[in-house]
């Protein structure tokens, strides 16, 4: 009996089909496992130390805030969180380093009003976009500003101060830590809200401004609570109001500006945690959860309170809305008051 080529082929197909089917089934099964294996092989964040960039020198409020956060975030994330001070150019140098880092969660940064919210209006050649180049993680804490006068000032309240200013337009002097500083901007916001005008006297920092204020050489100053609290307690300065919506736990008897007759006034030095732009939602969510948990810790709240700060928890979306709102508000006041950096 002769076999034709067709018969031979059919026989070969019939002989090999069971093996082919088994091989194909095994191959498909292995292929199905590959994506799962690749997912399993991806390193879980974090698997190495995280760098927390502070865009200011050691010892200031931003630096001290970062050093409260770092060890607590380390506990939550299971990896070292190392603080790195990268100061310069009004805080923009360090924030630029964050913006230009990979968005992999191993570089995070402390954003402040000057280098983040006011920067687009104050720095003509800002090397980053304050919105596009960062991914908001969450708010950290707010430091109230305090409207202070010298001990010899006749003004015992905000209304008495405003009455004197209206009777002598431009004749009263307002100190600041420098043109374009947070102190200066809050002072301009106050003038905008009340319709009064002061002669602005910029100093090289808060300390000399407060010294001259205590000596009666200038009439008023808006400064961070952490800077003026020792002077207030020592009787060298008199507080008239805090600039936040709620009273400070450190000065519970001092009214807010809203309570003192300046409606809806709310301004502070508010810090936030940011990642480079383009960070994944999963990464942002993980860091946000860790940050909120840290800020809810009573011991952490107490540590911030000793700095004169109040912790301020938020979602990434809430922080993003805050950023846009504050950038717009600051831009308006900088333009209207013709504020420039020293």
Order of helices and strands: HEHEHEHHEHEHEHEHEEHHEH
Number of strands: 10
Overall structural class, as computed from helix and strand content, comes to: alpha/beta
Segments where pLDDT lies below 50 for 5+ residues?
1-16
Strand content: 15-25%
Shape descriptor reads globular
End-to-end span in angstroms? 106 Å
The Rg value, from CA coordinates, equals 29 Å
Average pLDDT works out at 89
Count of DSSP H/I helices:
12
Approximate helicity band:
40-55%
Largest sheet: 10 strands, mixed
Task: Give your account of this protein's structure.
This protein has 342 residues and is of the alpha/beta class. Helix content is 46%, strand content 18%. It contains twelve helices and ten strands. Strands 1, 2, 3, 4, 5, 6, 7, 8, 9 and 10 form a ten-stranded mixed β-sheet that branches. Helix 2 links the parallel strand 1 (50-54) and strand 2. It is globular and about 65 Å long. Mean pLDDT is 89; it is low at 1-16.
Topology diagram in text:
Layout (H helix, E strand, L loop, with lengths): L4 H37 L8 E5 L6 H17 L3 E5 L6 H8 L7 E5 L1 H5 L1 H4 L11 E16 L8 H10 L5 E4 L5 H13 L4 E4 L3 H9 L5 E5 H9 L4 E5 L25 E9 L4 H16 L1 H9 L3 E2 L4 H22 L5
Parallel strand pairs: 1-2, 1-3, 5-6, 5-7
Antiparallel strand pairs: 3-9, 4-7, 4-8, 4-9, 4-10
